[in-house]
Amino acid sequence: MAIATINPATGETLKTFTPLTDAQIEAKLDHSARAFQQYRRIPIEQRASWMKAAADIVQQGSERFGFLMALEMGKTLKSAIAEAEKCAWVCRYYAENAADFLADLPVSSDASRSFVRYQPLGPVLAVMPWNFPFWQVFRFAAPALMAGNTGLLKHSSNVPQCALAIEEIFLQAGFPEGVFQTLLVGSDKVGNIIADERVVAATLTGSEYAGISLAQAAGKQIKKTVLELGGSDPFIVLPSADLEAAVATGVASRMLNSGQSCIAAKRFILAHPIADEFEQRFVEKFKALQIGDPMSATTDVGPLATPEILKELDSLVQSCIQKGARVLTGGQPLSNRPGYFYPPTILTDLRPGSPAYSEEFFGPVALLFRVAGIDEAIELANSTVFGLGASAWTNVELERERLMEELEAGAVFINGMVKSDPRLPFGGIKRSGYGRELSIQGIHEFVNVKTVWVK
Questions:
Q1: Known catalytic residue: 262?
Q2: pLDDT, tens only, 232-244
Q3: Is 228 a catalytic residue?
Q4: From the candidates 72, 83, 167, 228, which is the catalytic residue?
Q5: Does the model's pTM come out above 0.90?
Q6: Which domains does the chain have, with CATH numbers?
Q7: For the chain, percent helix, then strand, then coil, each to nearest 5?
């Protein structure tokens, strides 16, 4: 894939970039390693001051950065501005809490004094996706930099201006040169970068295939990785649920980022007593959504990011239909306009063996299933290779306890939408990846957890 800004609302190529040469990559890796030796010794109070400055820059420039996100990957401008503001939040969160998270932890032992000390590792490579082009980067960078590591960003090739803007934010905030650098390179360079002895660890958010590739390359070098991959999140609605709230939240979750979110609700698992009413309300709300220019304040659903994503999504939908699925709304790409638009779509009567049971639908397509009750709902929810998030709706306490305990996911939200929050660890199990971002667990992923024993 070329490194370029291509407006997904029109298909127009706006700007192209020349990938770094091997010599330029070598220079940046050397710069990162040398910067680390100095940066690791900088007091955490100074790092916090710079991180707060980064938060201010992002907050004050939220409209400008939001415009850039909307332009490069098609998310609505209002959601892009909110994404920038969330990035400011995570910067402030770690600026305020990192010192406590990294403080020596006393432990009683047979020593006169023993404790755990958290120390930075070195340059960490972050391979990041296009769907949340600022948030995905900042939720890695804020804890990694506060811990004393340096960062190397290999961003998705369709959001190069976002990638360069993030590097500039950290420089403007006062972080020394080399502490955070963007590498404008294709995916074919990742293996060699991982193999370089100066790169000590890596994190990736992206597809299952990309995660496998990175993990294999890092495994050969015995280097730590954190992976946040795909999801086919269940959204379970049981008879006691607040149906109005469940329907509204279900629509918002499925349409988040025009459906291009790993933690979006994808499989709606409905108990028979409420299924008909939920379906009726759900269809009505889907049909009322406004599709159009992501820059418009009235737009609810913008384009998909690339023509390849549009093609893949439609292929999954058509395969389900061929296997007996019924279309309640949508179901075909919008061919009467430029850009990569797919209408909000709902499929039901889904048959075992169709992609609905095994694939991630990365776009505005909701899959409706009906079950007899909680036992069948949990069984269906867990019958996937993914395990990122799960949302479940019930006001029966015993059902809540069962759902919290038995759903196989990195996060379970009861009567709410699955979301990431700096205060809570984020990540998945099964083929959704491993490791955690955010909270105290996130900052501890890329540190040496050193045991110190003194007699």
A1: yes
A2: 999 999 999 999 9
A3: yes
A4: 228
A5: yes
A6: 4-229+432-454 (3.40.605.10), 233-421 (3.40.309.10)
A7: 45, 20, 35
